[in-house]
Structures are given as C-alpha cells and as structure tokens.
Amino acid sequence: MRDLAQNKKSNEQNMKRKLITLATVCAVALTTISIAQAQDPASKGPRWRDHGKGNMLEHLTKAFNLTPDQQAKIQPILEQAKPQIVAIRQDARQKIKAIRDNARTQIRAVLTPDQQQKFDAFQKAREDMRKAREEMRDAAKQ
C-alpha cells in the first residue's frame, strides 16, 4: 500500500514537472512570436516593398530589366496592392494578439501562485522590452 502511495506521489510530481515544462515552452514560443511580431511591419510599410534599400518596383526593374513602359504599368498594381496588404496584416496582428492573450490566460491558470508571479513578471518584462523597441524605432524616425 505504501508503494502505491509513493508511486502516486511520484506520478503527481512528474505531471507537475511536465506541466511546468510545457508552460515554459509555450511562454518561450509565445515570446519568440511576440518579438517577431513586435517589429510592426505596418509602421515601416509592407516588407515586400522593402528589398534592401530600394522598393519593390526598383527590385523588379533590376531583377527583370523592366522597360520604362513596364515600370509605368507595374507601379499602379503595386500601389493598389499596398493598402490591401497593410489591412490584412493589421487584421492578422489583432487575431494573433487575441490567440496569444487566450493562451497566456490558459497557461497562467495552470501555474501555482508563485509561478504566476514569475510568469507575470516575465510578461511585464517582455512588454517593457516591446515598448522600449517601439520608442527606439520612433526616435530613429525623427
């Protein structure tokens, strides 16, 4: 009987370790995704437009040796696509944020009060870093 109780306790400890590991992995994954998304491509314009130091039309012109006539025809196509892409990215960012917030809430519910405090501190630090990056981007624009 004693072995059964010890085995049950050991299984519970293993389950707690697995849950903590899973929560940590999820938090790291969410952080990685958040950092990638925090670079806010809409504030810089679409990434497809920015190839190196030129824009998409310049890139296409160099890559395919476009004639001035072709450039004149392609420019309005790119200009028409730009606001659509920006809108889709904004919508995607909002959806990603909702999913991320939901995941964090679920993860937090699994944690012990001590782990929740650490998790909250981790989230606050991540948010502070995001704000600092945003401020640096804004300062660099001026």
SSE ordering: HHHHH
- Give the total of domains: 1
> Helix tally?
5
- The end-to-end span amounts to 73 Å
Q: What's the pLDDT, averaged over the residues? A: 82
Rg computed from alpha carbons, rounded to a whole number of angstroms = 24 Å
Query: Helix amount, in percent?
Result: over 70%
Provide key terms for this protein.
mainly alpha; 142 residues; 0% strand; 5 helices
Write the layout of secondary structure elements.
Blueprint: H1 2-37, H2 41-44, H3 56-64, H4 68-110, H5 113-141
Describe this structure in words.
With 142 residues, this protein is an all-alpha fold. It contains five helices and no strands.
Short description:
This protein is mostly helical and 142 residues long.
